[in-house]
Backbone:
């Protein structure tokens, strides 16, 4: 059972970390607009854009 | 590239074939004439547009390979009704004015500036896509982010970029940009929303971890482990108690100070007493700790309140209203050249400046006409449907529309000093206070608190005195009683039901600003309705064409009238053109070569020679209420056209349905009393309740004189009355403007949605009542268990989510039944 005494603080720290990330995201304005991102999700990239992005990553790689 | 083009053309063909033949391909509104068409390919039918604006936008989009706009729009659907693009009203050069830039643009980082625009015409997912494509077309623009809820776009651009080029791009895509500044109100609101969300998050995280401990404790953890678990849950409860629950303390405190009681008072009582009792027990090593139930209570209530707050259209408050009512740009005569004008922001205009107002433009200032004579549409200020004649020396007001000829106006007041500015100021300051409403839950809470406190004291004496349990045990049982009667379900009952109702209303095109409105509507005692645009169509239409003479030449006469009236900008002329075009759709038009000697005589009519005949159209002094225009051919009266503002088809039925609810109805209008009485007769409202000739201020007085009244009107010209009413319902004009002054906006025309709103509110209140009954039953159950001493932390931890679940299910079932009933 002694393992609980190690796992417990660890679990709490993990939770605390996620809470910190959440607070940071709220501060950064991630949740200010809850409507638009839902629509943004719907847009497919046109073939040209995908190509452009593909090229960009190639450039980074070489 | 050629292949892509080909594919795009196929997309357009496909979409065109599935679009009904009488609606505009771009905006989807009914296109009455076939005047604006475009053939994309040889085989397919031509695309139809409702106006030059929509056609131009289509051409620009297809030239840039942005046809996917139509595909996205089709797939994703619209969340607001679309409007035709129309013609441009003015250029955007005024945005490059350094003074304006100083007011509106902010520097985000060195060399990078940001400006926000309100965009008119945002209505669908494809709009988001299109707007955010702007950086591809305007070099220098770094990023464009649109917030559809407020229709506000934030543009970041390099410092040397001319803002007019960005604005021009928005305009080319069919949206009218207005620069906006974030007011203090908006910033405060955004900060408050964030802070509340963090509180919800903290409460949620702590509750989750406390539950882990609690489950182990209920599961039988003993010894050192149990001791640890209790202390950790105590530590985890502290942020909930001292940070997340703050809103409850604030609201309870302000309630007690006002000597009233809301549902927050028993909540705070439960939280604080529960905490004290748990800490005492914790120190004494007893198992009676309630941290899990209490933190869950805080989390559930906070979350439901946050969701309810975000459901309402709270972003649309009365601040920064001024941007939307009048134009932000004027054409000022520059000193050097006598006829040269310069576009400036109205903010820099000073009394004494002379501005030009072209036909179809809104007058930006209060002033005196120095040159020109014209007709003004004063509907914004007076609600009168017929234009007023003005000549040099007449006083004109900002917000009125110039309909006939260009005017030069000497500025006497601009901005907030204008009459419309003053009206807006009274609205913004909220000088008209609304009757407060005590929510049903809070009324119940009042009895609840006294019952709990009284019951607690009584049971303590029974435990200690009658049952001889000893002081400690009696106190423990009493505290358990208070904690278990903490009104979780009671506090959830209202927010849940209201959130559901607002969502349902929004799906029907009824946009409600804040949840409170739903409870207000049920206690409405009178209904006031505006005439123009609410009961009627809101524009001149030809009611009849009566041929008096020469019936054999009727077709030729109609053609001649069409040609003449096409050249006039008067609203009557426009109505006649609409009528004749719709009548002739499909037939051959414009067979006449030319008009000789065309004259427009201001306030009298038009004259012209066509094919050797002299035609004249002029007003006839009518015996009836409607306007009549006589058609003279070679000075002989040959036809009479009767025009009027037609009553909507569904008005009478809706008025009848509202009347069945026992609500007295009345019409408030700026139009002449005779016209108002005629409309009242047509929709079934008694003559004594038809009030005409009222200005905006008088309408407001009438509304204020009758407490608990609901006002239905135009978002613009009835702004003051809507704002003063117990419930203000806007039916016309832009949604954003309307919701800044009114409580409700009906996106569908007519009064039908208002009837639905009443039904929805009544049934929602029914659901709330049922929820209250359920939650009180749970509390009764908890209290009776506490009285026999059977309440322990596990019992409380089970009772609370169970009661919340019941209320949730009750709300969901209730609103589902509702949906079936209405649709």
Residues:
């Amino acid at each position: 059972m002694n393992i609980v005494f190690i796992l417990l603080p660890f679990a709490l720290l993990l939770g605390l970390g996620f809470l910190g990330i959440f607070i940071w995201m709220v501060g950064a304005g991630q949740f200010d607009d809850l409507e638009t991102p839902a629509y943004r999700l719907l847009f497919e990239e046109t073939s040209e854009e995908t190509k452009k992005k593909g090229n960009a990553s190639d450039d980074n790689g070489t | 590239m050629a292949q892509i083009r080909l594919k795009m053309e196929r997309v357009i063909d496909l979409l065109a074939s599935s679009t009904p033949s009488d609606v505009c391909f771009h905006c989807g509104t009914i296109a009455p004439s076939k005047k604006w068409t475009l053939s994309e390919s040889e085989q397919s039918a031509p695309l139809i547009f409702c106006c030059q604006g929509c056609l131009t936008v289509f051409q620009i989009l297809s030239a840039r390979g942005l046809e996917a706009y139509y595909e996205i729009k089709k797939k994703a659907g619209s969340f607001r009704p679309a409007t035709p693009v129309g013609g441009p009203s003015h250029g955007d050069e005024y945005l490059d004015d350094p003074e304006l830039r100083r007011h509106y643009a902010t520097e985000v980082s060195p060399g990078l500036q940001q400006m926000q625009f309100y965009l008119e015409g945002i209505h669908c997912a494809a709009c988001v896509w299109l707007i955010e494509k702007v950086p591809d077309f305007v070099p220098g623009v770094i990023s464009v982010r649109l917030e559809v809820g407020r229709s506000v776009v934030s543009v970041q651009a390099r410092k040397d970029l001319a803002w007019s080029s960005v604005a021009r791009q928005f305009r080319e895509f069919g949206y009218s940009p207005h620069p906006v500044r974030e007011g203090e109100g908006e910033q405060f609101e955004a900060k408050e929303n964030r802070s509340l969300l963090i509180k919800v998050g903290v409460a949620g995280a702590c509750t989750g971890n406390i539950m882990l401990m609690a489950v182990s404790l209920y599961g039988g953890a003993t010894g050192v482990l149990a001791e640890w678990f209790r202390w950790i849950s105590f530590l985890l409860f502290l942020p909930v108690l001292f940070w997340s629950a703050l809103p409850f303390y604030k609201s309870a405190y302000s309630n007690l100070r006002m000597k009233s009681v809301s549902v927050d008072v028993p909540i705070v009582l439960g939280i604080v007493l529960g905490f004290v009792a748990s800490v005492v027990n914790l120190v004494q090593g007893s198992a009676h700790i309630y941290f899990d139930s209490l933190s869950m209570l805080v989390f559930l209530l906070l979350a439901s309140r946050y969701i309810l707050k975000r459901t309402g259209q709270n972003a649309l408050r009365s601040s920064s209203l001024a941007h939307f009512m009048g134009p932000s740009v004027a054409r000022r005569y520059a000193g050097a050249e006598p006829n040269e004008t310069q576009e400036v922001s109205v903010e820099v205009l000073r009394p004494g400046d002379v501005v030009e107002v072209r036909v179809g433009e809104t007058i930006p200032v209060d002033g005196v006409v120095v040159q020109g004579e014209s007709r003004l549409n004063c509907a914004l200020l007076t609600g009168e449907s017929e234009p007023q004649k003005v000549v040099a020396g007449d006083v004109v007001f900002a917000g009125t529309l110039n309909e006939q000829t260009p005017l030069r106006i000497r500025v006497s007041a601009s901005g907030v000093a204008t009459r419309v500015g003053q009206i807006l100021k009274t609205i913004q300051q909220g000088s008209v206070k609304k009757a407060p409403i005590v929510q049903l839950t809070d009324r119940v809470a009042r009895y609840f608190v006294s019952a709990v406190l009284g019951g607690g004291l009584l049971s303590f004496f029974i435990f200690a005195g009658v049952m001889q349990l000893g002081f400690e045990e009696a106190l423990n049982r009493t505290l358990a009683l208070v904690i278990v009667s903490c009104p979780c379900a009671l506090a959830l009952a209202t927010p849940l039901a209201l959130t559901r109702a607002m969502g349902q209303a929004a799906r029907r095109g009824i946009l409600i600003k804040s949840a409170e409105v739903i409870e207000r509507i049920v206690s409405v005692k009178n209904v006031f309705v505006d005439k123009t645009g609410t009961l009627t169509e809101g524009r001149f239409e030809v009611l009849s064409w009566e041929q008096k003479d020469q019936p054999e030449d009727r077709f030729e006469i109609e053609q001649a009238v069409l040609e003449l009236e096409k050249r006039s900008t008067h609203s009557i002329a426009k109505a006649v053109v609409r009528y004749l075009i719709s009548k002739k759709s499909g037939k051959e038009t414009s067979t006449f070569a030319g008009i000789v000697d065309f004259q427009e005589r201001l306030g009298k009519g038009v004259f012209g020679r066509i094919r050797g005949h002299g035609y004249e159209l002029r007003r006839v002094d009518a015996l009836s209420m409607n306007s009549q225009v006589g058609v003279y051919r070679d000075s002989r009266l040959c036809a009479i056209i009767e025009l009027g503002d037609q009553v909507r088809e569904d008005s009478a039925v809706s008025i009848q349905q509202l009347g069945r609810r026992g609500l007295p109805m009345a019409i408030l209008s700026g139009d002449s009393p005779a016209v108002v009485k005629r409309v009242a007769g047509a929709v079934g409202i008694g003559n004594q309740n038809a009030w005409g000739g009222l200005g905006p201020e008088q309408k407001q007085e009438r509304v204020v004189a009758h407490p608990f009244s609901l006002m239905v009107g135009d978002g613009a010209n009835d702004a003051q009355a809507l704002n003063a009413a117990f419930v203000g319902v806007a039916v016309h004009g832009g949604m954003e403007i309307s919701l800044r002054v009114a409580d409700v906006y009906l996106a569908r025309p007519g009064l039908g949605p208002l009837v639905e709103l009443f039904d929805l509110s009544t049934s929602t209140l029914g659901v709330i009542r049922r929820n209250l009954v359920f939650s009180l039953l749970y509390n009764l159950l908890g209290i009776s268990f506490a009285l026999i001493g059977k309440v322990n932390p596990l019992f409380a931890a089970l009772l609370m989510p169970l009661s919340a679940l019941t209320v949730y299910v009750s709300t969901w079932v209730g609103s589902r039944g509702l949906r079936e009933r209405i649709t």
In short: DSSP finds three helices and no strands in chain A. Residues 53-62 of chain A have pLDDT under 50 and may be disordered. Chain A touches chain B through 28 residues (CB under 8 Å). Residues 3-27 of chain A form the longest helix (25 residues).
